[in-house]
Amino acid sequence: MLETKLYGESKDILNENIETLKELFPEVVSEDKIDFDKFKTIFGGEIDDSSERYAFTWPGKTQAIKESQKQSTGTLRPCKEESKNWDTTKNLYIEGDNLEVLKLLQKGYYNKIKCIYIDPPYNTGKEFIYPDNYKDNLENYLRISGQVSYLGERERERAMELN
Asked: What DSSP assignment string belongs to the chain?
């Protein structure tokens, strides 16, 4: 049986990326840091530094990117009681902060995971912020979406007679 040594920390994505940049473009390194003015000079027209562009953004996105780059030092422990058919399926149930768990999985389980289901974070605890019941009848949907005009009681009865 192959033994795996666990270090209890996620990949250090930020430092790995910095080291890769230093290896690929040593000319942009100054005093062991990336000099982005040199980087812009080298890449010239390939850098988009305009503020006008289409983007998928939201308040807090910059902070979210910074958080995703931080190294995690958590520990994953299997929850055999909540995992389905633990001894035969090789399925694993993990509970925790989505980002932290994904970062920890990245290092030890890279290229070994077939599927991850993440329960939406708004669906936790007792405080339910977002409604998740979007049931509606077909008539109302068609009216709201502009596919039919509003039918009064008489018009509805008449329409039912024709069908």
From this structure: -------S----HHHHHHHHHHHH-GGGEETTEE-HHHHHHHHGGG----S-S-----TTHHHHHHHHHSPP-------TTTSTTHHHH------S-HHHHHHHHHHHSTTT--------GGG-SS---S-------HHHHHHHTTSS----HHHHHHHHHH-
pLDDT, one tens digit per residue, over 37-79 is 888 888 877 777 777 778 888 888 888 888 888 888 777 777 7
Count the Cβ atoms, other than its own, within 10 Å of residue 35. 13
The pTM (predicted TM-score) of the whole model is 0.46
